[in-house]
Design brief:
Elements (H helix, E strand, L loop, with lengths): L3 H6 L2 E8 L2 E8 L5 E6 L5 H19 L13
Antiparallel strand pairs: 1-2, 2-3
Length: 77
């Protein structure tokens, strides 16, 4: 499953912050200090939101490394 590889291989810190009707989810790679965030519907559930944040973190780290995105489909914005 996308997102599982990075979370298991490295220390990734996930933070959830409720902002009105939305949840801001931040994912930080503790080794490179790369941080990304997404905003989502709280009804989606923490697991789904965390996976989306980790996928975006994988995407950003791959871009920084000059590689192709590990994500399939539409690229995160």
């Amino acid at each position: 499953m996308p997102g599982q590889d990075l979370a298991m291989a490295k220390d990734v810190i996930i933070e959830f912050l409720r902002v009105g009707a939305y949840v801001k989810v931040s994912a930080v790679d503790s080794h490179s200090l790369t941080e990304v965030s997404i905003v989502g519907d709280p009804n989606a559930g923490e697991e789904m939101l965390a996976r989306a944040a980790i996928r975006k973190l994988e995407y950003v780290m791959a871009r920084k490394a000059g590689g192709k995105s590990p994500a399939r489909g539409r690229s995160p914005t």
